[in-house]
Design goal:
Blueprint (H helix, E strand, L loop, with lengths): L5 H20 L5 H9 L11 H6 L3
Helix pairs in contact: 1-2
Length: about 60
């Protein structure tokens, strides 16, 4: 199994959140919830914590 780079994975989650916001504004409801549920499974971020990590961790 290939190891996943936590920083890159979390960056992809941030991109997905942005895409869900845009899609939601165009009528694709429910996508944001799906993305949010998936983001909860994100691996722990690198230290020191970046601002984007605070968003993913719910702060």
């Amino acid at each position: 199994m290939t190891r996943v780079d936590a920083g890159q994975a979390r960056g992809a989650y941030i991109d997905a959140i942005g895409s869900a916001v845009i899609a939601g504004s165009r009528g694709e409801l429910g996508l944001g919830r799906t993305v949010a549920e998936t983001v909860r499974t994100a691996p722990a971020g690198p230290l020191p914590e970046r601002p984007a990590d605070a968003l993913l961790d719910g702060w």
